[in-house]
Write a structure and sequence with these properties.
Length: 494
């Protein structure tokens, strides 16, 4: 039977939740929010910039004639490869990120991953002008560094997040993904129109570098190593996680249990499904709005940001609502994960189909916005499920699921580029129908096989079992011990 959360514990801090600076763990959440802001602003800026880089520009020549030129004459299929190149590197490091975060500290690896991506973003204009092959290499290396971010943040939560606050803390931090998308898409359009496409990479690269310095100074690997945390909050966090101060251990992950767990693979399928629809829209929405909806470049950036603005707002709602359902004992952890995740996937399936079927600017954009918005509730399902199954292995579990979930980032832009080679409405409908079908598959698999319980193979479950055995042995009646001793003596004499 699944354990119910205990809502009687208090962290002893007399301040409302919105005063995050009063609670050190929410300072970590605040900084992680801006970390993920940079993760996605550095990732999506090319989706808008590539429109400016490849569009036909009106050029007035010195002799008075007018012509059209492109900065880069790339076909739609080549653009698909350029957009997906980031994920060639990204898929290589999620698993590694989960592994090394336990050894070196999730906070350090998270910071370095984003910081190096920011530096490489500053070099992107030089790379593009040097040739598409050089741009490919730079984007692949960016992906390698950014691939560690999601597994590493789970390693951070495993040390900082009390069980009853996991959904809330993770959802607030993950909302930074969509805040970054909301800001980066329209601002990239404005920057490209006003100061040239190169400015897109300079501005967001510089912001990422500033964040890196702040993160490395402010955020520590655990409450025990944070000199600014209050003793009461530190005690509260450690007690809620069942840890004692100074406790250090070498984590040995139960690989056989992980790789044969149905709950883990349900999580992987769900993560893959959500990312297929998400990456399809993230990389192709500006192009879709320009080619199929016939919007101008600057408007495509603003309109592309609307769905992610809605999702970012709803992430706060979904995280608080998920924790509230657990704290009030209305739902078990498994029920919260299943209802939130599968409800979101069903809604996304329906609205993606409706939007594709209608394919008119107003209704289609509305349906896309609703579909993306509902994805916020899925993030209170699969995205924090790793911590339910095994907190100490959460970074590795996220590494495994995020590795598979990166495949859509590679495959989807390429497939979309080939499907939409003629830029017709029917081709774009096919793209949306594929995404809807994959959402539905993820919904079915997660509904039947997901779990929110601590798994029997987890490190924590094995530790509890060992502790119970030790306690049982210590509490054994003297007569039993004596009988056992006599039995041994008799056997020895025989």
């Amino acid at each position: 039977m699944e354990a119910k959360p205990d809502n009687k514990v208090s962290d002893g801090i007399d301040a409302p939740l919105w005063m995050f600076w009063k609670r050190r763990r929410y300072v970590v959440v605040f900084m992680a929010f801006f970390g993920f802001f940079n993760v996605y602003s550095l990732r999506v800026n090319l989706s808008v910039a590539i429109v400016a880089m490849t569009e036909n520009r009106t050029v007035h020549y010195d002799d008075g004639t007018v012509g059209y030129e492109q900065y880069f004459d790339w076909s739609s299929s080549l653009q698909g490869y350029v957009l997906s190149s980031f994920f060639y590197g990204y898929i290589c490091t999620p698993f590694l990120g989960g592994f090394i975060s336990n050894r070196f500290g999730g906070n350090y690896v998270f910071g370095v991953g984003i910081g190096m991506t920011a530096v490489l973003t500053l070099l992107t204009p030089v790379a593009a002008k040097a040739g598409v092959a050089v741009l490919f290499v730079v984007r692949i290396i960016e992906g390698i560094f950014e691939g560690v971010t999601f597994p590493c943040i789970h390693a951070v939560w495993s040390r900082w997040a009390p069980p009853n606050e996991r959904s809330r803390m993770a959802s607030i931090a993950f909302a930074g993904n969509y805040a970054g998308t909301v800001v980066a898409m329209p601002l990239s359009g404005v920057l490209a129109n006003g100061w040239g496409w190169e400015s897109v990479f300079y501005v967001f690269g510089a912001i990422g570098c500033v964040w890196f310095v702040a993160w490395m100074f402010i955020v520590k690997s655990s409450p025990e190593t944070d000199k600014w945390i209050t003793p009461r909050e530190k005690e509260f966090i450690l007690e809620s996680l069942g840890r004692t101060e100074g406790e250090q251990e070498k984590v040995r992950h139960p690989w056989r249990g992980i790789l044969t767990s149905v709950a883990v693979w349900a999580l992987v399928v769900s993560h893959f499904s959500e990312n297929w629809g998400f990456y399809t829209l993230l990389t192709q929405l500006p192009t879709f709005l320009k080619e199929a909806m016939h919007f101008e470049l600057e408007k495509t950036g603003f309109i592309s940001a609307v769905p992610y603005l809605v999702m970012g707002i709803l992430l706060f709602v979904s995280g608080i609502l998920a924790d509230w359902c657990q704290e009030k004992r209305y739902l078990t952890t498994t029920q919260v994960r299943r209802y939130f995740n599968c409800g979101a996937f069903l809604a996304q399936t329906v609205f993606m189909i409706i939007g594709a079927f209608i394919l008119e600017p107003g209704p289609t954009i509305t349906c896309i916005t609703i579909a993306v918005g509902f994805g916020a509730f899925a993030w209170s399902g699969f995205a924090v499920n790793h911590l339910d199954l095994s907190p100490k292995s959460a970074g590795v579990l996220m590494g495994i699921s995020n590795t598979f979930a990166t495949i859509p980032g590679i495959v989807s832009p390429i497939i979309t580029g080939y499907i939409t080679s003629n830029k017709s409405d029917d081709e774009w409908k096919t793209v949306f129908y594929i995404a809807a079908g994959i959402y539905l598959v993820g919904c079915v698999v997660y509904w039947f096989f997901a779990s929110g319980e601590l798994q029997p193979w987890s490190i924590e479950a094995q530790e509890r079992l060992a502790l119970e055995q030790q306690t049982t042995e210590k509490q054994a009646p003297p007569i039993e011990k004596l009988a056992y001793s006599n039995k041994v003596n008799v056997e020895d004499e025989m």
